[in-house]
Specification:
It contains 15 helices and 11 strands. It is of the alpha/beta class. The strands form 2 sheets. Strands 1-7-6-5-4-2-3 form a 7-stranded mixed beta sheet, sandwiched between helices. A 4-stranded antiparallel beta sheet has the order 8-9-11-10. The termini are far apart. It binds pyridoxal-5'-phosphate (PLP). Pfam families: Pyridoxal_deC.
Amino acid sequence: MSAETLDPFDWDAFRRQAHRMLDDMLDYTQHIRERPVWQPIPQAIRDTFREPLPLDPTDLAMVHDRFMRDILPYSAGNAHPGFMGWVNGGGTPVGMLAEMLAAGLNTNLGGRDQIPIEIERQLVRWVRDIFGFPEGASGLLVTGTSVANLIAILVARTARLGIGVRQTGLANVEEKLVGYTSSAAHLCIAKAIDMAGLGREALRVIGVDSAGQMDLAALRSAVERDRAEGLTPFFLAGTAGTVDIGAVDDLSALADIAQSEGLWFHVDGAYGALAILSPELAPRLAGIERADSIAFDFHKWGQVPYDAGFILVRDGAAHQSTFDFPAAYLRRETRGLAAGSPWPCDLGPDLSRGFRALKTWVTLQVYGVRRLGEMIAHTCAVAQYLKRCIEQEPQLELLAPVSLNIVCFRFRGDYADELNRRIAVALQESGIAAPSTTIVNDAIAIRAAIVNHRTGFMDIDALIAATLAFGQRVRQEMNKDVD
Ligand SMILES: *Cc1c(COP(=O)(O)O)cnc(C)c1O
């Protein structure tokens, strides 16, 4: 390294090292099928990360070797086609390269007059087109849907109470705001209600029907009850793609109720909203175009590398008036670097922001949204194949309807919950497939979410074969435990 700066002293040597690092990651992706999806972490490896603070330099080549040996093999594995747990995107080598370009540029997208912010504004216009939102709609890239949901709640709060609430706080407000979502909604909505200072009691959790959709009659009566008690209903969050079974709420009906009750209509479409890119799936999201705000992730079905969440708000002025904050050192000009107001920092909590827009823009450019829509439809076709395999196998049982790309099932047997919990762990530890578990109608289900564009029919065959093999083995072990 150079003595004066942190840049390399010998750029040629550094360049060779850089190419080795790039090649290693391309090899990793190209040959990912040859690896286990995930593997248990040896304690000895874990222990090597309990070392003292490095006071002196270490050669980058040695740090890279350590990454290859001790870090890369022990990540969660969501890039692997056998990864089916939770709802995780697989990423792409294209996205990886875009991340490198963004890191090399190291620009801060909080503000200032620069083309990287135009890239983010271009994305906002594209997202507006995707969801049929008007020109005045605004948007912002954030870490993920958890933050996007929080932003939506804050904008809805300010829109309802007026911007004065930003000065006085909720303690001085007479209205008691209440919001609504379903029992199948992601917990980050309750967390966001809490973080917004409303208190979790302000969220009404409405039951769902057998298809996992919010019960509309129960919603209407909850709103009526709250009004009768003098409370102020203000926010309704529908879900497009629930985490447990992939259900989509009846968004048109929710939009009608929100309209007649004067509620802010938000859609948590964390992974499901991008199904709109597939002409065959888009009708399932009918009504999403009427939302006041939509939260979703490019890092799930969009396959953009982590992290890339998005918030879209119909009323761009309401969005900005929730977050803008005049400060002398952030003064805007009409010319020079301080031009180009409003800045992204006027639309959310973050001032310093990375160039998430680049990997997202590059992904949309390089693949095109038609191809991305086809890929999303393909993951649903793979899920339907898994469903048929389960229905044809007497030892397996489907536990929930397969609405999009999530399949919940179990191996039949006594003590089914314990049996299936152990099968899921055995599958994960085998490195063959990595589903997760959830609870469907009070029963533990093995849950396979097909999000990764690399997951194909042969991965489903491997999952089924391994589930049957581990199911028999675990059942025998449990019988021995009982004896
Ligand atoms: C994943 C998910 C979230 C959380 O999104 P993050 O990007 O992890 O913050 C919220 N809601 C639903 C329906 C999800 O699937």
